Amino acid sequence: MKRLIEKSMQGQALSYQESYQLIEDINTGIIQAENLAALLISIQIRGVQLNELTGLRDALLHFATPVSLDGTNALDLCGTGGDGKDTFNISTTTSLVLAAMGIKVIKHGNYGVSSICGSSNVLEELGFPLTDDLKILESTLNKQNFCFLHAPMFHPTLKAVASVRKNLGLRTIFNSLGPLVNPVQPEYQLTGTFSLELAQIYQYMLKDKRKSFKVVHSLDGYDEITLTDTTRIYSQEKEINRSFSDFDLQRIAPSALLGGKTIKESAHIIRTILSGNGTTEQNNIIACNAAEALQCLNPDATIKDLFKESLAFIQGGHTSKHFNFN
User: 220 and 269 share a domain?
Assistant: First the structure.
């Protein structure tokens, strides 16, 4: 482990084999917390590299608890987090809207590490079970087009490193891994990254793993599609810049995207939006993200038409009715 730390501190990337072995060593418990923390910090300072991310991803998926859910025609929405923007839970809210619209969503996520409220925190508050019981997951997926895989329940490694990540309170390479290691590996994915460099790596890594995908990064730092600046979008065949003007909208202030200061406040924001009572800015942001996700499944539809469809659905409060939110 000391050799890996020194190698990383000298600016060298770990090899695929070293990265894969690191996961095995974490799982066996032979790595001390302080050494793991030192390695994670050094990798974050110099920047994550393709071979590292690929080796860690492959090892995490290899050691993951098998999940016999069908990922055909299913969608995952998950950002890396770690952008430090303190937004409300945009990906989670969008996931629920899409499920209510009839899209099969198998979402993968975790508790907040570098933020107050991650997807697991807020979904638990909203009444969704954090469970690895396949019967429950299948039931919610069949009845509601939605199920949630709480990452530590399916990845022994993530459970093992949870305390180290929490104590650091910083984004690490495990933030970069989260959207890549859904145990079901759904065919479709909309995912956001906290950096442009990571988005480009994601594009390369997802090309052979998804039927269709979009990787997004807002040029002012968000790991979501926002209306605060232009968003760079990477897919199988191309990369484009998406402006708020593409939706016939105006730029908004970052303050319009702020989330709650507690988990309860964060859940309240989601309930408000899904009941049709969100602010104009909140509704537009969710509709933009929903439109981009829908275009993964329906590439012939225009982004404006998908946006209008999603916005009308949100404003009608149909998601709240679908999930029977109070």
Answer: yes
Q: What is the pLDDT of residues 287-313, one digit of tens each?
A: 999 999 999 999 999 999 999 999 999
Element (H, E) at 50: helix 50-63
CATH of the domain at 39: 1.20.970.10
Question: Which one, of 181, 215, 172, lies nearest residue 197 by Cα?
Answer: 215
- Note whether 112 and 248 are same-domain residues: yes
User: Is the pTM higher than 0.90?
Assistant: yes
The reply to whether 68 falls in a domain is: no
Alpha helices in 101-244 (DSSP H): 119-126, 134-144, 151-154, 156-168, 173-177, 196-206
CB-CB contact of 225 with 231 (8 Å): yes
Q: Which residue, 192, 199, 201, is CA-closest to 81?
A: 192
CA distances, 122 to each of 15, 60, 105, 226, 318 (Å): 36, 25, 17, 20, 20
Contact 314, 286 (CB under 8 A): yes
Q: Is residue 162 part of a domain?
A: no
307 is in which domain, residue-wise? Answer: 74-150+172-323
Angle 64-70-75 (CA atoms, 0-180°, nearest 5)? 90
Of 10, 38, 63, which residue sits at a domain end? Answer: 63
